[in-house]
Amino acid sequence: MTSIETPTRQVPSLASDHIDTLGPSLTALRRQAAHLGEWGELLAGRLHGGARLLVAGNGGSAAEAQHLTAELVGRFQDDRPAFSALALSAETSSLTAIGNDYGFDEVFARQVRAHARPGDIVLLLSTSGASENLISAAAAAHWCGALVWAMTGPLPNPLAAAVDDVITVDGASAHVQECELVAIHALCRVFDSAIDRLWGTAP
Fold it and tell me: At the N or C end, where does the chain have fewer CB atoms within 10 A?
């Protein structure tokens, strides 16, 4: 009988396989580096000018949404001013009230209509690109005059078709989600560099 303390030979192989199969997804993300750089520069310019970032996602992508907003309100690496960024999945009372009264498809869209203003950026994270509540949020963001971005898994998908700009990663759902974190940190690195220039603290 095999106990949890004495793993079978298969366990290290499964772990290695998971890590190895992440490689092609990271390679796909690497091809989007210039695109991420453009996003970081534009995000810095808009938030420095007083706009805000709204981010939404479901499940693990909701966690990544909070991760990104924490980096902007707090800091990524070096100290800098705080910037306005909201993770819509973190608003639990609003989320549950809207879901109860209007249905789950509206949980992000109604918050976008409440908070987004022209010039803001709404970023939607989805491994499938098929979440109805994010597609509804994209429509609400356009109605508000916000710029709408998405990070998704492989094309084609309906969320990618519903936004102004999209960064996509090929791969299994888990690997797409793992790449979200890498993309977020890359975005933050560019953002911080651009903010330094805007504040005159870097050449």
Answer: N
Q: What is the pLDDT of residues 104-139, one digit of tens each?
A: 999 999 999 999 999 999 999 999 999 999 999 999
Give me 87's structure tokens. 């993770």
Which CATH number does the domain housing residue 145 bear? 3.40.50.10490
Q: How many domains is the chain built from?
A: 1
